[in-house]
Structure formats: structure tokens, C-alpha cells
Design goal:
single chain, binds adenosine-5'-diphosphate, binds magnesium ion
């Protein structure tokens, strides 16, 4: 893997950096700046080397056209505060504003381009669909640094195609993330537990098949758990449920049983009348979820059970909150899980928390980054890495510069 040091003297060079600055926003207020802070060291290092640093990133899921609610403007401001240096903001990604800002960028200066996903070419499904946008991005710079770990599992213009068009290197954040995750895939100390929760259920269910081959224990909470409960024939009320995945999950349960992987499910659930912080709510046993209620957190008995199942682990990977933690009445399960991780970390276990919302949750609930072995900026990316999948954004870096083979 080529690192920034391998790029030679960068003084005066235009360096395009793909960062992951996809932070949670409440209006224009950044509610967790973890990804900005994690991205800053690479940007600062390049600026200190005298490079002209052009940062590109996405925010949220705009539909391939400008949409003010997804503007990176608040992120540019916060990035400047974190760096302790001004960050210029371009009002488009590869248009006149971007080009003029690049022209005026001084050695050691930092520029942030507007949201990559305001351009349909960024996420287009085919090479041809992304080519023009990737070319336009590449034309802004002399070299490319890939530092957005949260997106390396995406075959997108700013992650994949641009690396084929410019001399490139892996940024410090991607390097650090990969180094930690490699320890989990190569020589995880046992017992090794994986904890899954959150709401992107269909995205994450596929991961489980591969994790069954590596982890000793799989603890399931969050929105994901109801598909498991349904697979066991239990009533899940109006909770999040992927009905078409129930059979897949049944298969996982059987395989886990055969292969000696322990699947730990909650003993109780916090159920509410509706998806709201003000909703009336109670704790019920996992096999007594009323048909008209929504499960929004794991219950206290489950928290104790999960903590116990983690207490002797030497390696723990956690992705996905245990409940709808953004609402105080449903945050206790996530808080208890974070505490259990912090406890085993203190006892010497390697713990990794991955995922945008999971990282935001542990910080919001009062934990420090140092309470865990590593807080990964990537949820989907770290899961796919653990699964042993090939990540296009990493492969393209290892593969070197395509143009080297050209006549
Ligand atoms: P991450 O970003 O860490 O990968 P996800 O994006 O998959 O995690 O899921 C985070 C979201 O899951 C949070 O917004 C949280 O409110 C939601 N969530 C957790 N448990 C439930 C549940 N039981 N029902 C609905 N949403 C849930
Ligand atoms: Mg998320």
C-alpha cells in the first residue's frame, strides 16, 4: 500500500483528498464531529508539506443534484476550526467555483469542494456513467490521496475511478483503520464476539453469513433483532422487520448451531406505543411483545446478559446501536453495551466500535474515544472488511496506477 510519503515532494502540488466527512446534522448543526476530527490529521499533514489541499467528500443522500440541506458548508467551517486554519469552500464540486478556488489555492492552503453527490456521476452504477465526473475531479489535481475509510467499499467516482486516473496514495486514516481491522481478521484473540444492531438491517444481514465463520459469539440487538425473533416464531408487533429475510435468518440460526457459534438474543425488549420520545413505553419479555407496539430498545435484563457475554471476550467488534438511542427513553441498552465494551477494554481486550451512528451514540452517551480500542469511521466498510470482501476503494490503491501500463 503506497502511503503519502511515497508520493515524493508535494510542495506546491495540487492534492485531491477523498475524506469521509459525512457527519450527522440537525439542520445545519453538526451533532457529532468525529469524522471531521478523524480526517483532520491527513489534511493537516498535507498542508504542512506545502501541498495545495483539495478535500472532497459527500454528505447524506442527495439525489445527484444540488440540494441545500446537504451542503458541506457547515462542515467546511467546522473543519477550519478543527485544523485551526481557514478552509475555503467551493460552491460546486467541479464547476467554475471549484476551478477558480483551486487556482487561487496557496501552498499549504485547504479547500473543501461542495458535496460530491450533487453530481449524478459520483454514484453512477457503470464505469461509463462515472467517467466524465471522475475526469473532471481528477483534472483539478496532480495526485490523489484516499482517506475516506467509510466509503472504501463503494465503487464511486471519488473513491475508485479517480485513483485510476491520478498517481495516488493511501491516507493515514484509511491506513490506521485497515491496520486495526486486519488484526480482527488475521489473529483475533478469543473469545471473539461481534455485536450487531442498528437500522440498516437488510445491508447488514448479509454480513452475518460470513461472520459465522470467524466469531465465537454473535450478539444481536437494535432494529436487526426483530427479524431474528420472527425467525424464532415470536411476535414482533410493529417493530422493524425484514419479512423477506426471515428465512435467511432461520438458515443462520441453524448454521450457527451446527458450527458452535453462540447467537445471543435479548431476553426483554422496551416496547412503545409509537416511534417518539414521548410515547408510553414498558419493558416486556422477548416472547411477549404486544402486536400493536414497537420494540425500540433491548431491556435491562438483556443489557445484563449482553454484558456478561462480553465480559470474558478478548476481541469485540460492535456495529449498530441497541435501540433508538437518539430518544432518551430508548438509549439505555446502547449505553449499557458501550459500558460493557469499555469494561473489557480496560481488562485488555481489543474493542472496535464501527459505524457513523454507533460512534455518535457512544460519544453522545458520555463515553470518551479512549474508552474503546478503536472507533472506526466506517460502519458498512468495516463490516465488509471483516467479512473478507474485496473493497474496491482499497483494491484500486493496491493495484497501482493504471496509466503505467499505457503506451
Ligand atoms: P451505524 O450508522 O452505526 O452503522 P445504523 O445506521 O445501521 O448504524 O443504525 C442506526 C440507527 O438505528 C439509529 O438511528 C437508531 O435509532 C436505529 N435503531 C436502533 N434500534 C432500533 C429499533 N429497535 N427500531 C428502530 N430503529 C432503531
Ligand atoms: Mg448509520
Amino acid at each position: 500500500m503506497k502511503t503519502i510519503g511515497d508520493l515524493g515532494d508535494l510542495r506546491g502540488k495540487r492534492v485531491l483528498v477523498r475524506s469521509d466527512l459525512n457527519v450527522p446534522l440537525d439542520g445545519t448543526t453538526i451533532t457529532d464531529d468525529g469524522r471531521i476530527r478523524a480526517s483532520a490529521p491527513t489534511i493537516r499533514m498535507l498542508a504542512e508539506m506545502g501541498a495545495r489541499v483539495i478535500v472532497c467528500a459527500h454528505l447524506g443522500r442527495p439525489k445527484g443534484e444540488p440540494d441545500p440541506q446537504y451542503s458541506l458548508a457547515p462542515v467546511a467551517k467546522r473543519l477550519g476550526e478543527v485544523l485551526g486554519a481557514p478552509v475555503t469552500f467551493a460552491e460546486d464540486t467541479v464547476g467554475p467555483s471549484a476551478r477558480s478556488a483551486v487556482e487561487h489555492l496557496k501552498e499549504g492552503g485547504v479547500l473543501l469542494l461542495e458535496n460530491l453527490r450533487f453530481n449524478p456521476g459520483e454514484t453512477a452504477k457503470t464505469d461509463e456513467g462515472r467517467a466524465e465526473f471522475a475526469q473532471a475531479l481528477a483534472s483539478l489535481a496532480d495526485v490523489f490521496v484516499s482517506d475516506g475509510f467509510g466509503v472504501v467499499h463503494r465503487e464511486q467516482a471519488s473513491v475508485y475511478d479517480v485513483a485510476r486516473l491520478l498517481p495516488h496514495a493511501t491516507g493515514g486514516l484509511v491506513e490506521a483503520e485497515v491496520n486495526v481491522l486486519r488484526r480482527l481478521t488475521r489473529d483475533a484473540q478469543r473469545p471473539y464476539a461481534v455485536v450487531l444492531g442498528g437500522a440498516k438491517v437488510s445491508d447488514k444481514l448479509g454480513v452475518i453469513g460470513n461472520l459465522l465463520g470467524t466469531a465465537d459469539r454473535l450478539l444481536v440487538g437494535g432494529g436487526m433483532v426483530f427479524t431474528f425473533l420472527a425467525a424464532k416464531g415470536l411476535e414482533v408487533g410493529k417493530s422493524l422487520l425484514e419479512a423477506d429475510q426471515v428465512d435467511t435468518v432461520k438458515g443462520y440460526l441453524e448454521r450457527a448451531d451446527k458450527e458452535g457459534v453462540e447467537i445471543v438474543l435479548p431476553a426483554d425488549i422496551v416496547v412503545a406505543d409509537d416511534f417518539s420520545a414521548e410515547a408510553a413505553h414498558d419493558v416486556v419479555a422477548v416472547d411477549a411483545i404486544p402486536a400493536d407496539r414497537i420494540g425500540l430498545d433491548i431491556g435491562p435484563e438483556s443489557s445484563r446478559l449482553f454484558a456478561e457475554k462480553l465480559s470474558d471476550c478478548r476481541t469485540v467488534f460492535w456495529n449498530g446501536p441497541m435501540g433508538a438511542f437518539e430518544m432518551a427513553p430508548f438509549a439505555a441498552g446502547t449505553k449499557a453495551l458501550a459500558q460493557a465494551l469499555a469494561d473489557v477494554t480496560r481488562d485488555g481486550a481489543l474493542t472496535v466500535v464501527g459505524g457513523g451512528d454507533s460512534a455518535a451514540a457512544v460519544r453522545q452517551l458520555g463515553f470518551a474515544d479512549t474508552d474503546f480500542g478503536h472507533i472506526s469511521t466506517g460502519g458498512g466498510a468495516s463490516l465488509e472488511y471483516l467479512e473478507g470482501k474485496e473493497l474496491p476503494g482499497l483494491t484500486v490503491l493496491d493495484g497501482g496506477d493504471d496509466r503505467e501500463g499505457d503506451a
